[in-house]
Design a protein that fits this description.
Strand content: 25-35%
Structural class: alpha/beta
CATH class: Alpha Beta
Number of domains: 1
Number of helices: 7
Radius of gyration: 17 Å
Low-confidence stretches: none
CATH superfamily: P-loop containing nucleotide triphosphate hydrolases
Bound molecules: adenosine-5'-diphosphate
Order of helices and strands: EEEHEEHEHHHEHEHEE
Distance between the termini: 21 Å
Largest sheet: 6 strands, mixed
Strand order of the largest sheet: 6-7-8-3-9-10
Mean pLDDT: 94
Length: about 230
C-alpha cells in the first residue's frame, strides 16, 4: 500500500523544555484515504497540519509526504514541494479579491510554470465539476460563502496535488453551505483524492472521512475507522 503521509516519531516544541505541543506521534495515511483530525482547541491539530504541509518543521522525527522526506528540505525546496504536491483549503477561503474566479483558480498553475492555455482548460474542467462555471468571470466578493469555498477547492486541486489539506473548511459557512462543502469533499474522496481534514465538526468528520484521529494534549487519543466508507 502506498502511503501519502508517513510521520515517524514526530514531536514539535515551540521552545522551552515543557511537554511538546505535539507528539511524539507516528502516523501513516494511505493513498486515497480521507482522514479527519479532531480534538479540542490547543490539542495540536494545526501543528500537525502545518508539519504535514511543510509550513513548519518538527523538533524530532521524520515527515515524509508523497514519497519525499520534507522535514529537511530548504525553504525554497519546500515552497516548490507545496505548490506541486499539496492543495490547501482554509476556513476563510483566502481568495484574492481583485482576481476573477477563473484567475484565482489558475494562479497556482501559473506559479508552477504550467502553460496558460493548459491551466485555463484544467480550471474550466474544475469549475464544471464543482458547479461554478457561471461565476468564472465574477470576483469572489460577489459570491456566497459556499461558492467561495468551491472556488478555493478548485484552486487547491488545479495542480493535481497528491494531498488535499482542509483546515475547518465549513467553519465559516451556514448549515446549508456547510452541507454542500461536505458533499463536495465526500465526492472528491470517492474519486480517490487523499484528504486530511481538520475540523471541530464531528458531523463533517463522520460524513466524509473514512478514518478519524482524535488529539488530546498533542497525543493520539483515538484512531477510528468509520463503520463503512460511503
Ligand atoms: P489546535 O489547532 O488543536 O487548536 P495548535 O496546534 O494550534 O492546536 O496548538 C497546540 C499547542 O501549541 C497549544 O498549546 C498552542 O498554544 C501551542 N502553539 C501553537 N502554535 C504556537 C506557536 N507558534 N508558538 C508557541 N506555541 C504555539
Amino acid at each position: 500500500m502506498t502511503h501519502v503521509i508517513e510521520l515517524q516519531g514526530v514531536a514539535k516544541r515551540y521552545g522551552g523544555t515543557g511537554a511538546p505541543a505535539l507528539g511524539p506521534i507516528g502516523l501513516t495515511v494511505a493513498e486515497g484515504e480521507a482522514l479527519a483530525v479532531t480534538g479540542p482547541s490547543g490539542s495540536g491539530k494545526s501543528t500537525l497540519l502545518n508539519l504535514i504541509a511543510g509550513l513548519d518543521k518538527p523538533t524530532e522525527g521524520s515527515v515524509t509526504v508523497a514519497g519525499r522526506r520534507i522535514d529537511q528540505l530548504s525553504e525554497h525546496a519546500l515552497a516548490r514541494f507545496r505548490r506541486e504536491q499539496i492543495g490547501m483549503v482554509f476556513q476563510f477561503f483566502n481568495l484574492l479579491d481583485d482576481l476573477s474566479v477563473a484567475d484565482n483558480i489558475q494562479l497556482p498553475a501559473q506559479l508552477t510554470g504550467t502553460a496558460r492555455k493548459k491551466a485555463a482548460v484544467r480550471a474550466g474542467e474544475l469549475m464544471e465539476l464543482l458547479g461554478i462555471s457561471k461565476h468564472a468571470r465574477a470576483y469572489p466578493g460577489r459570491l456566497s460563502g459556499g461558492e467561495r469555498q468551491r472556488v478555493a477547492v478548485a484552486r487547491a486541486l488545479i495542480n493535481r496535488p497528491a494531498l488535499l489539506l482542509a483546515d475547518e473548511p465549513t467553519g465559516a459557512l451556514d448549515t446549508a453551505s456547510g452541507q454542500d462543502v461536505r458533499e463536495l469533499l465526500l465526492d472528491l474522496h470517492r474519486g480517490g483524492q487523499t484528504i486530511v481534514l481538520v475540523t471541530h465538526d464531528l458531523a463533517l468528520a463522520q460524513s466524509c472521512a473514512g478514518r478519524t484521529i482524535h488529539l488530546v494534549d498533542g497525543h493520539l487519543a483515538a484512531d477510528t475507522l468509520a463503520q463503512a466508507v460511503r
